[in-house]
Amino acid sequence: MEVAKWKPNQVMIRVSGWMAEHGPSLTIQKTEVVVLTAKRVDTIIPLQMGNQETVTKRAMKKATEKAANVTTALSRSMANVGGPKPSKRRLLMSVTTSILLYGAEIWADAFRIEKYSKRMADVQKLKALRVACSSRTVSEPTILVVARVIPIDLQTRKRNAQCDYGDAEKDDAYHTFFVCKRWTAHRQILEQQISNITPENIFKRMLTSAENWDRVAVHGETMLRHKKQEQSLNPP
Fold first, then answer.
1. Does the pTM exceed 0.70?
2. Cα angle vertex 134, ends 133, 140, to 5°?
3. Model confidence over 188-235: pLDDT tens digits?
């Protein structure tokens, strides 16, 4: 457990030090830290960032709580009688879906745990009830059909579906950045600039210089922009 606390703090010390030396600064309130581990350790870890301290949060719990608060706030403007039309309700409530699915590529595997999936399903049901102007006693499957809302578990799977370019069963950040054949040419250009990249050394390469940081950032932005454009031209 002590190692789990020590390592993230060492990373943040190095990142904060490099950014202070090269000009950029971190806004603590807007900074998010994701801790990925296969071990059964507490992932709520206090992190020292300069002179301030922040605490990591559980991604699914944070997303669910935020989505629930937003849904409640939006519901106040959606009276069942005399309120917005269903199309407008659906548009407003799409904000909830965006919040629920934020970072889904990272935490999708946790959806197999019932207590986590139920939290999100409950929030989505509340959203569907407001879209359909229905009573809370209506069952979840029924209200999702009436409100024309895709179940959150299916939307999560879609976020982690097979690679659009057909070279992997799971399209995640690791595959896109380091493996996918579609981006081989882009990757080779980046490696000519900063040397070979792997999941283990990518951050070291970025922290070597401001130029390397910008090169990696441009590489990622270029891939995501092209990928989004190609997906819009060839929808599933």
1. no
2. 125
3. 999 999 999 998 899 888 888 889 999 999 998 898 888 878 876 765
